[in-house]
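User: My advisor asked me to double-check a structure prediction for non-specific serine/threonine protein kinase before group meeting. I don't want to rely on an old file, so could you generate it fresh from this sequence?
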Amino acid sequence: MLEEELPMCFEWTISSLHINCGDKEAIVNGVKYEGDTTPKGASMLYVSPDNWAFSSTGNFMDDNINDDNYIVSSTSKLTMPNSKLYARARLSPLSLTYYGLCMHNGSYTVKLHFAEIIFTNDSTYYSLGKRKFNVFIQGRMVLEDFDIEKSAGGAGKLVIKTFITYVTNHTLEIQFYWAGRGTTGIPKRGFYGPLISAISVTPNFQIPLAVEPPRSGSGTNTSRTSKALLIGAPIIAIFTALVVGIYWIKRRRKNLVNQDLRALDLQIGSFTLRQIKAATRNFDPANKIGEGGFGSVYKGSLSDGTIIAVKQLSSKSKQGNREFVNEIGMISALQHPNLVRLYGCCTEGNQLLLVYEYMENNCLARALFVEEYRLALDWPTRRKICLGIARGLAYLHEESAIRIVHRDIKASNILLDKDLDAKISDFGLAKLNEDGHTHISTKVAGTIGYMAPEYAMRGYLTDKADVYSFGVVALEIVSGKSNTNYRPKEDFVYLLDWACVLHERGTLLELVDPDLGSNYSTEEALLMLNVALLCTNAAPTLRPKMSNAVSLLEGHTPLQPFLSELSLAANSLSSSGLRRNFWENPNESQSITAQASCNNTSDSSSLDVDGSLRHFAT
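Assistant: Sure, here is a fresh prediction for non-specific serine/threonine protein kinase from the sequence you gave:
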């Protein structure tokens, strides 16, 4: 969030910017491109004396962090015009952002010069690589899944992308961001991510007279002023760079959140506290739409009319800090129609604020269980919601570049947009599930009634824990009843217990929400209920993968072969007994919460007493 931490600009400002990314200074068509040869790139900031800067975030997923290259050279001879701009380029494993500092406000033309100089057009292994990344200018995405080679018509060919943008606060921001797509190990690990050859920024307005060259015959005073300007400009530029650097360091030291958060703060969009206060009317209580264990959630409106939900975490809680870092780190790398979208964050002062897309219909728990807000969800809508959750989890577990176990799937963490499409939210407790690890051993954090037995009792965490939680939510969707609050008889602790009994009796359809009357498909209802029971099997190995659950719900995979596993579950150790034993005798290391009312950004009330933030399985 460099642009928010800059001091006020001096009167002397710039109106154009030309950078030869990853290479030395070059003159092209009479224009000087500033050199950019700083070799480092992992979570670092470089401020040039020429009023520009760049920051790079992340480490490559390779075997030797000391050999990472953030500047790469062409693997073959280049024949395009002005090849000196493309022979070398700057590379980043995650986020690379260039800043124009102290610029005149106004309209500019931005030209981004690209050439794929690592991959090749031949039949060698180097030709198999695929690079895709996103490009943002002033926080707005201008290129999504941009493939240099495809856009240029081959490797080793140049392509220039031109955009019009506006500078309103004397700062221009151009960000290149890897969202996890493309190859990661070709020609070897450490050559993926955004690649940029050169940047050119020119004004679409007349340069103010104050910095124009003096006119002839303007007299001695003008000549003296011109000389003073020529002498003073470089000094001011250097002084500006020093002030920016010192100010940046001081701000980082004063920041109340930990080092992991500071390393992540350039990966997503940034908001000032002033912007958020204006959007929420200074956190007006009338705009509060939810509250949980780590703070409040407010509805807001940005100056462009975008409706947002602001999740305000408590700055006094170390747990809140860890969740804040974790949520940004997880969700900023994920993009799927059934995952809530994170617009950005704010860490100004002691504030920890997450800015999400606003969900018009709040969350599934409120739509199903809260009488005054309950929605009349018809059967097709319930089926759509259930499928949306399943698809979102299948993406997290099996399709995304980073495999994630959510750990806290529950009705209050499923948000509903204006079309009642389901969006999984609240990644504060999520864990990375690394390849090669069969499970993660971790202290328990989650919500009563939704946690799988093996996780709740032993801290044994796999993606099958999310499958279990999904099964519980699916039962709630069909029945319209809360798993933890519905007890048809004293002997049954949970809705799931009653569902198992009805399954044994062969009367599973008794579980369907009476509000639906006869306006539902009995075949689809039975399918959804049986899939839910499969997912809540006491044995994790007998639960289906989420991709299999999606296929079952869509009717692409027959249910019959799976039904024997329901019988195995019935003959196995009683899951009801497991749950009752656990909740009546929790051990001290477990950190759990009762089901909480939801809010529009899925503010979690779940606590994790483990003192360390584990990004990876241990």
